[in-house]
Write a structure and sequence with these properties.
Layout: H1 2-8, H2 20-36, E1 45-49, H3 52-57, E2 59-61, H4 80-89, E3 95-98, E4 104-111, H5 126-137, E5 141-145, E6 151-155, E7 158-164, E8 181-186, E9 189-194
Parallel strand pairs: 1-3
Antiparallel strand pairs: 1-5, 2-4, 3-4, 5-6, 6-7, 7-9, 8-9
């Protein structure tokens, strides 16, 4: 896992306005969801990290929140049981809101999103639009697990990194990042990040 951590340091930097260690933890969980899927099928989900009060104002649950009412000490992302719960809940529609201190505050959230002012590459859908929009309007960072098993990170309304968990995907995958980027590899993970401007 240390090899992965060195790859993620450019994505999980202080400039993101969220705790780099927490963002790293969320990205690693997202990579696990992308690799493992659930019940033999690939799934997609969305994690919004930080600025939770603003994110909650810009989102809503369309089903009963399965995490509502549970004590915070049971909802820490660092807890193994919570990580497994998140993997199960990821099969449901909507995303997760994670507080600055690593508490999974809410699940199955629908983010209010407007495409105005958001530039996304063709082929990315509503989950990616919601991720870009919430990071444009708040200080949060979003991590999207695509059903194609690619993990994408959004900050300040733009795609800043794509993480490809399986090397075999590289031969069938076209990048959406525009402009100069760097590529780092370790074992079965490739991280492609936009160069700072």
């Amino acid at each position: 896992m240390e090899d992965y951590r060195s790859l993620l340091c450019s994505v999980c930097s202080e400039k993101r306005e969220v705790d780099p260690k927490l963002l790293e933890e969320v990205i690693i969980l997202a990579v696990e969801v992308a690799r493992e899927g659930r019940e033999g099928r690939r799934i997609g989900t969305l994690f919004v990290v930080g600025d939770e009060q603003e994110v909650l104002k810009r989102s809503r649950c369309l089903i009963l929140d399965p995490l509502l009412g549970h004590p915070n000490e049971l909802k820490r992302l660092s807890d193994h049981n919570m990580r497994e719960t998140v993997k199960e809940l990821a099969q449901l529609d909507g995303g997760f809101v994670i507080s600055d201190d690593g508490i999974v505050v809410s699940a199955c959230r629908y983010l209010d999103a407007s495409s105005q002012g958001i530039e996304l590459p063709l082929g990315l859908g509503s989950r990616h639009l919601a991720a870009a929009c919430v990071t444009r309007d708040t200080r949060a960072v979003s991590v999207v697990v695509s059903e194609s098993s690619v993990v994408r990170v959004f900050d300040d309304g733009e795609l800043v990194s794509e993480i490809i968990p399986e090397l075999w995907l590289m031969s069938r995958y076209g990048l959406h990042l525009q402009g100069p980027y760097s590529e780092q590899k370790a074992e079965h993970l490739t991280v492609i990040s936009k160069e700072p401007s």
